[in-house]
Design brief:
This protein has 132 residues and is an alpha+beta fold. The protein has helices spanning 10-17, 41-46, 63-74, 107-125; strands spanning 28-35, 56-61, 79-86, 89-92, 96-104, 126-131. The protein has a three-stranded antiparallel β-sheet with strand order 1-5-3, sandwiched between helices. It has a three-stranded antiparallel β-sheet with strand order 4-2-6. The relative contact order is 0.27. The mean pLDDT is 94.
Length: 132
């Protein structure tokens, strides 16, 4: 997992990934970039509309849980590269929350691994408090 001091460069991440010893096994990379949005999670996920607009969020994470989620993802069949960066603190609308890069042999495995890792991070590893 990456230091949260500086938002990473995906171009640099890709350059580094393509130099990894397992790069020859990889046929696809996917990137997830989560950002703070103004629409409340309750509206997006549940259709609830109380008229509130998100101004920002307090974001934190459990480093050990994230490391465990990354390790489990690396054990998936056909997944050869995993990199995660998480922000922390008080974030504003438009700020980056996280970057996740997954590299693997074929599309279905990479899509499933990315979806699984992001879901695990969002539901088991982080705390998000929306600010209105």
């Amino acid at each position: 997992m990456e230091c949260r001091d500086k938002v990473p460069s995906i171009d640099r991440w890709m350059e580094e990934a393509k130099k990894d010893p397992d790069a020859g096994k990889i046929g696809m990379y996917l990137v997830h970039n989560g950002i703070v949005r103004e629409t409340p999670k309750s509206k997006v996920r549940n259709g609830e509309n109380d008229g509130k607009i998100v101004k920002g969020m307090i974001f934190s994470y459990d480093e050990a849980k994230v490391a465990s989620a990354i390790a489990a993802t690396k054990e998936r069949e056909g997944i050869y590269y995993v990199r995660v960066w998480l922000n922390e603190g008080e974030l504003q609308v438009g700020d980056d929350i996280m970057y996740v890069l997954i590299g693997g042999d074929i599309r279905p495995r990479v899509i499933e691994a990315l979806e699984s890792l992001v879901e695990k991070i969002k539901t088991e590893c982080v705390t998000e408090t929306e600010l209105y």
